[in-house]
Amino acid sequence: MPESLLAGERFRIGYALAPRSVSSFIQDSLIVYAEKRGIDLIPIDLEKPLIEQGPFDSVFHKLYDAEWKKQLEEFSLENPTAIIVDPIESIEKLHNRVSMLDAVKQLKIENLEIPLQAFVDSNESLQDEIANQGMKFPLIAKAVIANATADAHQMSLVLNGDGLNGIKTPIVLQEFVNHGGVIFKVYVAGDHVKCVKRKSLGDITEEKLGNSENLIPFSLISYFADNDQSDESLAKLMEAAVMPPSSFVNEVSKQLRRALKLHLFNFDMIRDSRDGNRYLIIDINYFPGYAKVPEYEQMLTPCFLDLAHQKRSKETANIDHEADSTGHKTQEADSNGHIVDN
């Protein structure tokens, strides 16, 4: 895809984000880098109706309430060729951990799985659900709702059956898979992908299972997992971790993007410590913190340019459709500059 638009052409992207997201995402480096390539990033005033602002060739957002959804629908009706990034109905699928990973099951990729997991809506059925799914301890207990709230990020490690006594339902239980203390965070912006390594929960041995608490909140997990590891050894662990093949990461990202019908998301992927060819996706997030990715401007701006060309293609298709529907002959100039009928 071209590095910029045609000379003199500008592509206007309106963004609607919570203040915290604006400060972390819309950095000067991104604004300048995009501007030089024909992309203008324009803040949307949340105190005014969207339909009264613009014009925008595209709108990207991280808002989900009913009023905002209505405004997006009205904007799309008035601007049918504008690109909305992303449709709320697609985003909402990632806000529920019961269905979040369903899209992964649709992918036709060898050696890619999701962990065993179960949704439990009552404490009385905890043991039964675990048994029905064939799950083994340790387990990770996650809130059902996955959004920007603090409660959504509260998780616990359940080491044994007694640990279930401290769980409040409804809850999603996910089987923990040892993965060498390293997680691969894959950031997707349209066709553009970047994979980075991050420190994760260390492997849990049988010895640790037998000499530990029953239930450990993630806020205290570092003591349990890394009590015997120095900063230096952790750094060596991270450095030694082998990245997944780029062809594999790109194929997973492409298929997952199509299944989710989203442009902006990331997914957390681990490699099974017992089988180096087995990868598992354990979480998917909408519109993640791209600014944490090195040179994120060079990842997002090409995505914006792709949106610009997609918008132009929709406009061309609309013009052609209108010309065909009128039944009028199209015209063009001959070699002498005279208008002739086709």
UniProtKB/TrEMBL annotation:
Binds 2 magnesium ions per subunit. Its EC number is 2.7.1.134. Its cofactor is Mg(2+). Residues 315-342 are annotated as: Disordered. Residues 12-91 form the Inositol-tetrakisphosphate 1-kinase N-terminal domain. Mg(2+) 1 binds at residues 268, 283. Residues 112-305 form the Inositol 1,3,4-trisphosphate 5/6-kinase ATP-grasp domain. GO terms for molecular function: ATP binding; inositol-1,3,4-trisphosphate 5-kinase activity; inositol-1,3,4-trisphosphate 6-kinase activity; inositol-3,4,5,6-tetrakisphosphate 1-kinase activity; magnesium ion binding. Mg(2+) 2 binds at residues 283, 285. 1D-myo-inositol 1,3,4-trisphosphate binds at residues 62, 153, 185, 285, 289. Keywords: ATP-binding, Kinase, Magnesium, Metal-binding, Nucleotide-binding, Transferase. It catalyses: 1D-myo-inositol 3,4,5,6-tetrakisphosphate + ATP = 1D-myo-inositol 1,3,4,5,6-pentakisphosphate + ADP + H(+). GO terms for biological process: inositol trisphosphate metabolic process. It comes from the Eukaryota. ATP binds at residues 97, 142, 174-185, 200. The keyword Nucleotide-binding applies. Residues 315-332 have a biased composition (Basic and acidic residues). The keyword RNA-binding does not apply. Belongs to the ITPK1 family. Kinase that can phosphorylate various inositol polyphosphate such as Ins(3,4,5,6)P4 or Ins(1,3,4)P3. PANTHER family: INOSITOL-TETRAKISPHOSPHATE 1-KINASE. Monomer. This is Inositol-tetrakisphosphate 1-kinase. It comes from Solanum tuberosum (Potato).
